[in-house]
Write a structure and sequence with these properties.
Blueprint (H helix, E strand, L loop, with lengths): L3 E9 L2 E8 L8 E10 L1 H8 L14 E8 L1 H7 L6 E4 L9 H4 L34 E4 L5 E3 L6 H4 L2 H13 L8 E5 L3 H12 L4 E6 L4 H9 L4 E4 L5 H8 L5 E6 L6 H9 E9 L14 H5 L3 E4 L5 H13 L8 E5 L4 H8 L10 E4 L7
Parallel strand pairs: 8-9, 8-11, 9-10, 11-12, 12-13, 14-15
Antiparallel strand pairs: 1-2, 3-4, 3-6, 3-15, 4-5, 5-7
The protein binds zinc ion (2 copies).
Length: 370
């Protein structure tokens, strides 16, 4: 009998349904992943509400962790993994040939056509259909990128390779953060907290995190994970506080990872020290930034860096840190959800469930519904 998998299928804006889909055989170049966990991030919420353009129907889920169930002989040789190995899978499935890929920016590759091509974004109509990780099984393409992960790390912790990888790329790799740097993180969500962990691991001197009044618990966690100071921007004058905390110097690195509001982007210029690097990674639904004083970039010689996704070196750094057990990254993990609860999980992350808050959550296909 042909094998099938349960999968959550997005059929439109705010429309998810559980389906049973066929699992094809693997060829020489591909593999089948048994999904252990799939992390949920802000992009899932944007995909759910239709801000990220994807073709429907589609199986979402771009932060997969799992075990190789079947693998083609050539894929096994090229990736250096075999049946039974645990792997973390990167979201993009690059073409390997386009200008972006050739210049080392495979994370923005559009060479496979149809916009974003990656796990969680390729429609069901493109064989074999099961491209996303909101499922028991997911297809691994010849160009999928996998990283080995030690099997003894709990799945909910191991799957944090994704936010932590973002922390390393956005707060360390892109702004070249090192010892002596004052790092200011705007936004205490999972990416902000991951930025704190990464900046601390990179030897940053002072780490400051900003948040809103409702973020009290997240700011406390930021301090636990390595932040020296936190600022509630609704009750404190953040510009004054940053000046005070840095002896008038300002931040050498500003990492903007807040969601939706463009206000922190304009504020970042005020917090920055001369010659500072400002990394913009939080998306704002393509809204313009009011009160953006570009002269501050000129007179302070600031460097503005855009960050879209994560690349292999930062995933490697994240995986090594997770496997080392040196940092209690699992403190960020708040929820495991069954596949059936995918919609609740995404809406909770988007802040749409009154009275409940999540930081890092994941879908665990082997869990039964709540
Ligand atoms: Zn994500
Ligand atoms: Zn490409």
């Amino acid at each position: 009998m042909a094998m099938t998998t349960r999968a959550i299928v997005q059929t439109g804006v705010r429309a998810l349904e559980l389906r049973e889909l066929p699992v094809p055989d693997v060829d020489h170049e591909s593999a089948l992943l048994r999904v252990e966990a799939c992390g949920i991030c802000g992009s899932d919420a944007e995909q759910y509400v239709g801000t990220i353009p994807v073709q429907y129907p589609v199986v979402p889920g771009h932060e997969p962790l799992g075990v190789i169930e079947r693998i083609g002989d050539r894929a096994a040789r090229r990736w250096g993994v075999d049946v039974g190995d645990r792997v973390a899978v990167e979201a993009p499935i690059p073409c390997g040939h386009c200008a972006a890929c050739r210049t080392g920016r495979y994370n923005v590759c559009r060479g496979r056509g149809g916009g974003l091509f990656g796990h969680g974004y390729v429609p069901l109509s493109r064989p074999p259909g099961i491209w996303g990780a909101y499922a028991d099984f997911m297809h691994l393409d010849a160009f999928s990128i996998v990283h080995r992960m030690r099997p003894d790390v709990p799945a909910a912790t191991a799957v944090m390779f994704n936010p932590l990888g973002a922390g390393f790329r956005w707060a360390v790799e892109l702004p070249a953060t090192g010892p002596g740097d004052v790092v200011l993180v705007l936004g205490p969500g999972q990416r902000g907290l991951a930025s704190v962990i990464a900046a601390r691991a990179a030897g940053a001197d002072t780490i400051i995190v900003t948040g809103l009044a409702r973020d009290t618990a997240k700011l406390a966690l930021a301090r636990e994970l390595g932040a020296d100071h936190t600022i509630d921007v609704e009750h404190e004058d953040a510009r004054v506080r940053v000046r005070e905390l840095t002896g008038g110097h300002g931040a050498d690195v500003v990492v903007e990872v807040s969601a939706n509001s463009p206000v922190p982007v304009a504020e970042a210029l005020h917090y920055a020290a001369f010659g500072a690097r400002i990394v913009l990674a939080g998306v704002k639904g393509f809204k313009a930034v009011p009160e953006f004083v570009s002269d501050l970039i000129v007179v302070k010689e600031l460097h503005l860096l855009g960050a879209f996704g994560v690349t292999s070196p930062s995933y490697q750094a994240a995986i090594r840190l997770i496997e080392s057990g040196r940092v209690p990254v699992e403190r960020m993990h708040t929820h495991d959800f069954a596949l059936e609860d995918a919609e609740h999980a995404v809406r909770l992350l988007a802040g749409e469930i009154p009275g409940e808050q999540s930081i890092h959550s994941c879908l665990v296909p082997s869990l039964r519904p709540r």
